[in-house]
Amino acid sequence: MTAAAADTGLLAPGRAASPAADEAGDAAYLRALLDAEAALTRAQAALGLAPDTAASAVTEAAVPDRFDLASLAVRAREGGNPVIPLVADLTRAVGEEHGPYVHRGATSQDIMDTATMLVARRVLAVVLSDLERCARALAGLAAEHRDTPMAGRTLTQHAVPTTFGLKAAGWRSLVLDARDRTTAVRDALPAQLGGAAGTLAAFTAYGAEDATALPAAYARELGLRAPALPWHTLRTPVADLAGCLAFTSGALGKAAADVLTLSRTEIAELSEGSGGGSSAMPHKSNPVRATLIAAAARRAPQLAATLYGALAAEDERPAGAWHAEWEPLRDLLRLVGGAARDAAELAEGLRVHPDAMRRNLDLTGGLVLSEWLTASLTPVLGRAKELLTETARRARAEGRPLTELLAEEPELRNMDLDASAGPVRGAGSAGVLTDRALERR
Question: Which entry of 122, 317, 334, 341 is annotated as an active-site residue?
């Protein structure tokens, strides 16, 4: 394929040059298709349905470099999928003696679905590695900043104190949720083998006493899960992939959204380790990793929706529903693979600025501690909520610290309000919650 025709990711910097993109590119798909074809012949040989020499011949011929990707792509238009021209080319490459054992008994969807599961498994291995990297880096941040106070924000406004350790622990929890879901989906990816209409009829005609043993043998050759049934129009594996990948993009997107907010110039509580530049403004250091992750989180749900829509597939093999899956599923794999890489790099290089966190925490003159003070003073005053509400109004109107106004109340003149309502105390059990979250492995 020429450089002009190659999909290099020019408009997809989130996945460009990522291992996941390599594992889901055209060359990777060709490799998976050939792996699926060779494994089919080997599985039949293992059950005595083909000679061992045929299995060896097909496996030796199934070398990606021997096939013309551009030609396969163009010729795929004739039958609607790339398996048909590939089988023709592979049969010629195997030779007259063993060529009849290429693709024997299978249908195009068997090979295409199986290749897709192989591609997905290889991409998910990369994703899982990056999720583990990200989780490790976030664990370090959470432990280091267990007691670093910052403003908790709700509906965009300062609410009560929290800690950056708890925030990072929350990000990590989502990453681990994504890891667990991705692991479960990867381990359940099945081979596909059913023949023309999912009955395995052709394999019986070729001499199989029990054709139902063949899908399991096929799956063993590929390291995939043995399918309970042919799933040509039972698209649970694709739907599970869609859900897991969409969740992962959203989980990573949550952390990215927080980083984008907290790295704003006027907030400056976080910054990326190596921000990106601007074509026009020399001073800029943009949060590029977080930006690309956020973009992936916005795209992934729509790609997953297309895959969910393909569940409603008619008959024993569908026209259009299956075909509609190919591009969005590959896009989703590459998109999430790139986002996981960027998330690992973001977490490993993230810079935390505790001084800015404390400065911003003090912007409200103590109003961020009003909930804590209400709870603390209720046993003393009884009317604490009403007092705090009115005093907070006065603090905003007069530009005075909340604790200064409270100290003027007769019942509170002998209390050290500043000491009793420090930001770490106001953060409640944030430290304990962080410790508990970090116990998860």
Answer: 317
